[in-house]
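Technical annex, item 7. During the second reporting period the consortium partners agreed on a shared format for inverse folding records so that results from different sites could be compared directly. Each record opens with the tokenized structure and is followed by the designed sequence. A conforming record, contributed by the partner at site C, is shown below for reference.
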């Protein structure tokens, strides 16, 4: 597929940014190689629904080869990129070195535990399918074990679920978890005393959903309270040993489950790339999304530190999607001898759902809440999912849950994923 005369573009990562960039290059006079350590594109915004038994893992993952099978100038390789030799222009991978003329780094992010080793060891992040299935197993196992536990203190600890981080992922996880227990599991466990169940959302600052206007933050807070989620502000976790969560000031919350939704950083590849790093170990790029010392390397999405209005852009999907379009266009422009186009992020708005019939949204100057915002959230997420089958399956799951107060995926599965050594 790779001809000797055509330039070779290598893209690392088939997430939102990498996939989009590959598609944008479909008509380029170049050969494109897309690398990812897994063979599927993952729709991360619905990971919390996998963790709370709302949708199946397969409903939010789609094979990269299937998505791109019609793209003639593209080759996909499933392998992990381990580094880059900028002098020789080689991407180093577990399957050997891959030469490039132009490189797009789109490796995304990873959970940032801010150096809290005990939390990383005993808590649950929410960044990939393994995290989500592991968390689902934990939640369901804790309820099973609690039903057989005669000691009330131990039982309450098993039924206490602490979510850390009041951003969209924390809010959505806490709301979904509360509904899983209150609306669904109570039917499976007639002996479950709902008063013994605690879902606690801890936020280090004084606000939920920092990017939302104050009015929507208040609505979010009150909606969570109505769903029996305890929200604690100015609460900073310092330790979690698997049996109790310790907060700054030495307050202790007995709990067996801690969900960490309090931080992200660029994926480890960024740190091993040898390129200059900015905040959250993201690779610093210029206005054209190029690494300043290596203009043949572009970085997009969660892996890029790009400043606009004096602040780095947030690590969200629209930033990755829009960056992909500009990076691909700039590579095409270089190939055609055209001037480069600077990246200017246009904020399409932010949304967060708090559960059934409840969401908040801000789009431009408009603010939405309640049922309408929830429908907006559902529609946008279904449309953004890759693949008609996945859209249909997610819609069916949601409709089933909405009308019958049921969730279909409540099996405790052994983690059968073996570590792939590629
Ligand atoms: C739980 C959760 C909820 C979220 N909710 C929202 C939301 O509601 N709205 C929103 O806009 N954003 C949301 N986000 C953020 C959004 O998912 C990210 O901003 C977006 O995925 C970034 O796109 P990306 O292309 O930079 O990286 P990703 O989509 O993360 O893709 C990176 C790809 O690179 C691959 N990769 C990583 N390292 C290597 C390597 N060394 N070698 C080979 N391949 C590698 C990965 O396998 C992955 O496929 C959420 C994220 C999470 C985790």
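Designed sequence (site C submission):
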């Amino acid at each position: 597929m790779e001809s000797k005369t055509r330039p070779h573009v290598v893209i690392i990562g088939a997430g939102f940014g990498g996939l989009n960039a590959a598609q944008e290059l479909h008509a380029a006079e170049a050969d494109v190689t897309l690398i990812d350590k897994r063979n599927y594109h993952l729709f991360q915004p619905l990971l919390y629904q996998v963790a709370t038994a709302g949708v199946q893992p397969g409903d939010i993952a789609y094979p990269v080869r299937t998505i791109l099978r019609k793209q003639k100038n593209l080759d996909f390789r499933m392998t992990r990129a381990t580094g880059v030799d900028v002098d020789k222009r080689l991407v180093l991978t577990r399957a050997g070195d891959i030469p490039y003329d132009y490189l797009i780094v789109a490796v995304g992010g990873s959970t940032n535990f801010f150096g809290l080793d005990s939390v990383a060891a005993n808590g649950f992040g929410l960044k990939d399918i393994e995290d989500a299935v592991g968390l689902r197993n934990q939640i369901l196992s804790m309820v099973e074990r609690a039903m057989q536990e005669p000691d009330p203190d131990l039982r309450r600890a098993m039924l206490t679920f602490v979510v850390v981080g009041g951003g969209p992922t924390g809010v959505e996880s806490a709301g979904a978890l509360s509904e899983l227990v209150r609306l669904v599991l109570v039917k499976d466990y007639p002996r479950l005393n709902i008063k013994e169940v605690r879902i606690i959302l801890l936020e280090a600052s004084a606000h939920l959903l920092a990017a939302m206007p104050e009015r929507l933050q208040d609505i979010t807070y009150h909606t969570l309270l109505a769903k029996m989620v305890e929200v604690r502000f100015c609460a900073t976790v310092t330790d979690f040993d698997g049996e109790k969560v310790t907060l700054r000031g030495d307050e202790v919350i007995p709990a067996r489950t801690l969900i960490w939704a309090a931080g992200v950083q660029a994926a480890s590849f960024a740190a091993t790339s040898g390129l200059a790093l900015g905040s959250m170990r993201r690779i610093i790029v210029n206005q054209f999304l190029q690494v300043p010392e290596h203009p043949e390397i572009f970085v997009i999405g969660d892996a890029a530190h790009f400043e606009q209005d004096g602040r780095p852009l947030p690590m969200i999907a629209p930033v990755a999607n829009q960056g992909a379009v500009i990076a691909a266009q700039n590579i095409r422009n270089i190939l055609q001898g055209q001037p480069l186009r600077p990246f200017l992020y246009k904020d399409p708005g932010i949304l967060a759902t708090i559960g059934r019939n409840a969401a908040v949204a801000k789009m431009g100057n408009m603010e939405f809440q309640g049922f309408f915002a929830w429908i907006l959230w559902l529609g946008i997420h279904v449309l953004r999912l890759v693949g008609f089958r996945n859209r249909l399956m997610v819609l069916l799951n949601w409709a089933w849950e909405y009308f019958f107060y049921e969730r279909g995926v409540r099996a405790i599965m052994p983690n059968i994923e073996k570590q792939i050594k590629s």
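The chain has a mean pLDDT of 94. Residues 12-18, 35-38, 42, 44-45, 47-48, 80-81, 106-109, 126-127, 168-169, 267, 269, 301-303, 315-318, 320 surround flavin-adenine dinucleotide (CB under 6 Å). All partners now use this format for quarterly exchanges.
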